[in-house]
Amino acid sequence: MADSLSSGLGEEKEKEKEKEEDSERQGKTEQTRQTDRSKEKDGVPETLRINDKNGGGKGKKRNLSDLSLVRFITTELTRGYFLEHNEAKYTERRERVYTCLRIPKELEKLMTFGFFLCLDAFLYVFTLLPLRVILALLRLLTLPCCGLSGSRLLQPAQVCDVLKGFIMVLCYSMMSYVDYSMMYHLIRGQSVIKLYIIYNMLEVADRLFSSFGQDILDALYWTATEPKEKKRAHIGVIPHFLMAVLYVFLHAILIMVQATTLNVAFNSHNKSLLTIMMSNNFVEIKGSVFKKFEKNNLFQMSNSDIKERFTNYILLLIVCLRNMEQFSWNPDHLWVLFPDVVMVIASEVAVDVVKHAFITKFNDISADVYGEYRASLAFDLVSSRQKNAYTDYSDSVSRRMGFIPLPLALLLIRVVTSSVKIQGSLSFMCVLLFYLGMITLKVLNSIVLLGTSCVFVKEANMEEKLFDPPPSVVSSRANSRAHRNKHVHTTPQQEPTATKPTKGGISLASDNPQPASMAETFVPTIPKSDSDTFLTTPDEEDDDKIINANTGLEGDGLEHRTPKKDLLEIDRFTICGNRID
Length: 581
Hints:
This protein is an all-alpha fold. Helices cover 71% and strands 1% of the residues. Strands 1-2 form a two-stranded antiparallel ribbon.
């Protein structure tokens, strides 16, 4: 009985297990069928599914479609979004707008300061340079009576002044043979398109002349004042002097043609040439806005704009003088020229503002950078007044902005002497009073600029750099010290270490470990940035330069370090998607 009961129970359990397994299998098959049906239905449009369920009823299909369209429209009308979810992005966009609004004010501050710097260098040619030349010539004449007190007949600055005076006298005598009236009628007979092309060519040629002309003048000054004990490595003072005279004369002729073309544009009946020449300024926006600009590049362009604006003011002054002469100095004609003058100046200012605003926007440059530019220009002015100054201020402005006052001053003297007739003692008294007024203006302008520049330098924390020696002196001292320490601390078992120059011209020991004693005694001198560097404002790269010099590593030795990100870091792609290297 027990065996039969146990066998019966075992069979029942087996049957129950089989039933459970069958039910599980059926459930799985139903699930797979439902998933297959859903996949098939996903590939079929919703309208076909509605037709299949309702047997192809059209009324119900229209109601459901209308309901879905209403729901879509309602969703589009009532959906919302939150700008605060991307707060950083919109804050950055707002700051860009504020930067663009600040650009006109900051730019005009820089332009005004740069204008008075150029005016100071320009007035120097008319006021202080003749007096300095007279003093230098008097020193030469009185030397036989007083005897030679030193090894030099004249100081280097006096030699440069005398050379400038001789260049002005020779070029003025050559300019007297150039007929301005003939040049005016020759240019006026050309067509408008030719004049437009000529004016563009003159602008390009003026920039090229300014770039190469300052090098010619610097070569002349250094050749004339170079110490005699050095080995001669030049062609002589006279060839350099002739090249300088030729350059100043040709550059003055070029500016005269440019002023004559502008005068023709003012006197044209339909003002079409003047309109075309003004539109040329807006073409400048296209050529500069969509390019990659960093802080140094923007500084260079700002200096070029300052020089261009000041040159345009002098050209407009020449045009007004020539026109007033033709109308017998009738003051009523000045009001006829006034609207055109204002239009030219306004277009120049508007183009500069738009250009700088979009350049700073596209390159993520802050408007505070123009304060650094003012401090850099102020540093040039203050450093030229120091005892260890190695250049004249007018030459410093010429190198920084590309503004060379000699050709422009020569042309203005030529136009004034040909336009104003001096007759009688009263006329000479007026000229003397005018000259005294120019000297007064020059002195007052220099005093105000010097005080303002000291404030800018102090705000930029650049006072210490004013007392640094010139870079050549620093580099020579550092080289001699490194050379001496290299020979003192090398042992017979240790080969001399190879030296590699740094960016500042200092030879630093590298490639081999240095003894502890040498590390204590050898402290390289780092040349500070001076007026010849591109930007004299403090930068974050100064810390890297000091670390490189103290550790004796340059370039490849510090590649493993993560470089500091510049605050003015910009995107490598322009707005058009073109790569700029």
